[in-house]
Amino acid sequence: MSGSNPNQDDVGKRSLPSWMNKDDTSVKKPAGVGGSEESSERERSKQVKGHNSKRGSGANDMETNKKSSATSSGTGKFSKLLEGVVFVLSGFVNPERGILRSQALEMGAEFRPDWNSGCTLLVCAFSNTPKFRQVQADCGTIVSKEWISECHSQKKLVDIESYLMHAGKPWRRSSVAPETSAELKESPPRRFQKKDGGSHSKATTSAVSKNRDSNRAKTHLSPSKVKNWAIDDLDNTISWLESQEEKPEPSEIKKIAVEGVLTCLQDAIDALEQKQEVGKIIEEWKFVPRVVKELAKLEGMGDNDSSISNEDLYKQAMECKRAYEKEFGSLEDDDSTEKKKKPKTNEQKRGERGTGYESDETIEMTPEEIDLAYNAKSYETKQYKKGLKAADSILKKFPDHGETLSMKGLTLNCMDRKSEAYELVRQGLKNDLKSHVCWHVYGLLYRSDREYREAIKCYRNALRIDPDNIEILRDLSLLQAQMRDLAGFVQTRQQLLSLKSNHRMNWIGFAVAHHLNSNALKAVEILEAYEGTLEDDFPPENERCEHGEMLLYKISLLEESGSIERALEELRKKEPKIVDKLGVKEQEASLLVKLGRFEEGATLFRVLLSMNPDNYGYYEGLHKCVGLYSENGQYSPDQIEQLDSLYNSLRQQYNWSSAVKRIPLDFLQGDRFREEADNYIKPLLTKGVPSLFTDLSPLYDHPGKADILEELIIELEHAVRTTGQFPGRSEKEPPSTLMWTLFLLAQHYDRRGQYEIALSKIDEAIEHTPTAIDLYSGKSRILKHAGDLAAAAALADEARCMDLADRYINSECVKRMLQADQVTLAERTAVLFTKDGDQHTNLHDMQCMWYELESGESYFRQSDLGRALKKFLAVEKHYADITEDQFDFHSYCLRKMTLRTYVEMLKFQDRLHSHPYFHKAAVGAIRCYIKLYDSPPKSTTEEDDEMSKLAPSQKKKMRQKLRKAEARAKKEAEVKNEESNANNVSKTGKRNVKPVDPDPHGEKLLQVEDPLSEATKYLKLLQKNSPNSLETHLLSFEVNVRKQKILLAFQAVKQLLRLNAEHPDTHRCLIKFFHKVDSMPTPVTDAEKLISSVLEAERPTISGLHEKSLIEANKIFLEKHKDSLMHRAAAAELLYTLQPDKKAEAVKLIEEATNNPVPRNGALGPIGEWTLEDCVRVHKLLETVLPDHDAASRWKEQCAKYFPYSTYLGGRLSSAMPNSVYNQSNNSENGNHLVAGKTADSSLALNGKLEAFKDLTI
């Protein structure tokens, strides 16, 4: 069904499935569509003429002489073949447009970018386009592109009659060569006339002429032709549907194609019945069957000659419909349909019917066998059963045919029968090592298993056999982009461009390859070369977005390469061709700032602010333009005054904007800050915005602003409570204002660590409005910060029950339950918002990483290392999937021209593993492996004891037997799993049931032979992607000390000193490392001596140890940080490590620490420096590292006074107390007892916190 007007929207199209209506001009038009069916008609007529010429009659000889004379007259000088032709091109895209233009110019024609009175010929790709109708109305002549190509290829003037799409005025000027004029006179009469009877001459109206035209019209829809058209239309419609991005299922595609063809034909019949033009039907449909086009031609012929009445045309249309229905009804299913014969190629299946087969020998196949060989590729349409059937039918006759074996293996791979697939592909490759198909399929198998390096090797082997295979080169380039083999990517893209330079995607891919290879200027040159192949009127309407994106990408390349002035000039020059006008303005503003043209930049940023006054980036750009930008947020008094004046004017202009009111709070100080904060907070309290505190939270990091906010909120609370209105206002506030003010005040006290006051305020708010869900969630957070995790979970569950349809509140409740180690209850709550079926698998499929991290932490606290590892490694698997997901975008983005976003996506993928979630998962996994190394499972220890009793040779044999038995069991499990999958495969080859997790509790993960080697894998990722994290190098120190990798451990110590030399954990690692080095025996081997010499040379360079002993360095550190609890605890621990006899002195150092109040301006009560997490860590230190239970109990009692809600410390107000309303001493869901000192004692060892390392001893 033919291409539609590209300028038309889809309004008015038929409401058929989206794949029937989708107008994707980037998809290549299938054969037989538009002008191509005329080409196929010509091919049949040529065959008939060739057959008749063998008769050798005199008439034929005379006709041959005429043709030869006409040919000789048309084979004049090649450069003057089309002299006098002034042509216009319509409906073509580059490079095809440029090729046609060049061919016509070589033959002497003149080109015009648009149609005017001086033009003589329109070369058109499709009918019914706006240009087609314009020229048709102007009585111009329209011809298909094949005429230009035929004239150019045959080096002579080919008869134009059979290529005409519309006949009108002469297609060349009158001043043509005499021989050409004679040829024109001999041309047969025009076939098509203008529908509205324009100014061009009409055909004669004699009876003979009418009868001739009438007979020609009636024979035009002969039954034989209609039958052929029906078959062609069905095949072409199926091909077109398969080429769409959104296509139907393979089993439904034929049915939909038949329905579409008959529906379009019925629309034409309805139009004839209602005496409407059939041509309108062609405009409405995006893919038109041949018979409808022919009816439209006959209708146009009838309008001119009056030889075909509308009634006769309607009858013929009805006969055509019956013929189509009959032909479609007689067709069999896809498996038995007679297919078109395909020519043999060098890629046909090779083999031999018997023994002595040589791989280089060619198999002679029948056409039917060739058909089956092609059908083996039905895996592309996911018809796996059909593909297997076709492959098996070939292998019955040619059992050693390598390519068929490979294709069968590829099909089995798609059905998750991987072991069979690899076996068949390897067998096929063995039988035909010189087949690029076999190597290509082998590479596809590796690619499906993410073995990209092996896949690249296979592709390279295939290219040695067929170096110019575009499909293999394209696949290779995708893998090179995936693996960041940038040099190879550039080379492959260059080869693709040289092989197919008329493909836009190859130009763009070559440019992107150079850009990724840090050669932006070369990428610009390639894009400019590509632009040189385009016409002046490019792009057409349907390609404006893609072309505009390419231009913006080119400008970004110029900016990246430092050619700022050139980039700005190019941007302004190409602005009319860029659709993204907002992107143009943002790019121009950025370039102006970089060029220092601040006045122009300020003007442009003000224009952008008028479009979106809530975009913080525009305000930042305006700051730069007016000279008031500061990276650290520090401003002088003069700058503050200028900024205040600027925002006063902006506030008057955009008084509805939230950003213009919020940004001044970041730089204002003192009374001006209080005034603007007051104006900002009051409307939001009246409106009732729960996220107000989250918005104000960054201000608490500014000195003094937290105190001002506290005074302001207290004043507002007092005024609303006593008068019902804000200070300075006469209008009364709604009752909810007091509730939201109390909520804000409670969050404020929670942030400052005053949990008792915070809880009293939130309780008052709940009493005021018991139905506000946000109050319960807020109280849950306060209790969590106060240390009562069980009560926090209970409050979160209460909030969840108030609105069971709120997914966010449900997720927050699950998080609180996991923090309280109520894992079973948390799982049951989490799956409420998953699909039916295997709900826990759904959580994994949804990549719910926060849940897996919190669950893993809970299992780690409960010492369930198997399940903890399972959760942490699941997060790592998600990031592997995210990396894999980028593969499909390597071709998609080049095709859709989303180049800037594509490059940003690749840069994001390169830093993907620096994301906080991956960091937490990797840290959790490493901690599990360290703990597994320190405390291996009992079964492993017992086996080691039995093995130690054996002789060395027996040990080796025993290990080999165990490995073989393990491999055999693994293979049997895979076969069993594949059989289970095969039984659950539908007819299309899709699995109905997902495989069952063979290790749901992570027990197999605990059976790892070398936990530290597994930990090293994730440690390397952290060192690469999180090098500035203190936690990364703390883990590196712990792992390498256990592995006896002294230099690597020292490297970790140096990194810690670089990041924060005064951190207590840095000091702890430094002293412990050199204490271990000093206690090592005298070096004997060369390697040991080398290590010792390196450490002796490096030790004096460390300032803390220069000319000092370890004991002296520890004393100096203590004296320097005597007021810090954690520094005193570190010094006490190291004192006990260096001098075990001074344990009492070490304990005394900790007990003498004082909780000094934090200096502040307010007077609402002191806030101590100690945090709950610090107190818990020190208590664990006293219990384990400095084993003094009496001191630990005293410390616990002392800290409980500061944190009365802590269940770990046994606070008097915590839920651990018997009289607490939140007491949950018997948790039947998990079998845990959340009492002080039990499960909850580890609840605060959150992932990403350094306290987790205190349990790790060297």
TrEMBL record:
One of its GO terms (molecular function) is damaged DNA binding. TPR repeats lie at residues 436-469. GO terms for biological process: base-excision repair; double-strand break repair via nonhomologous end joining; single strand break repair. Residues 182-199, 344-355, 963-979, 994-1004 have a biased composition (Basic and acidic residues). Keywords: Repeat, TPR repeat. SMART domains: BRCT (SM00292), TPR (SM00028). Residues 1-75, 174-222, 328-361, 937-1004 are annotated as: Disordered. The keyword Transferase does not apply. InterPro entries: BRCT_dom, BRCT_dom_sf, BRCT_XRCC1_rpt1, NatA_aux_su, TPR-like_helical_dom_sf, TPR_rpt. GO terms for cellular component: cytoplasm. Residues 77-165 form the BRCT domain. It holds the Pfam family TPR_11. This is BRCT domain-containing protein. The lineage of its organism: Eukaryota, Viridiplantae, Streptophyta, Embryophyta, Tracheophyta.
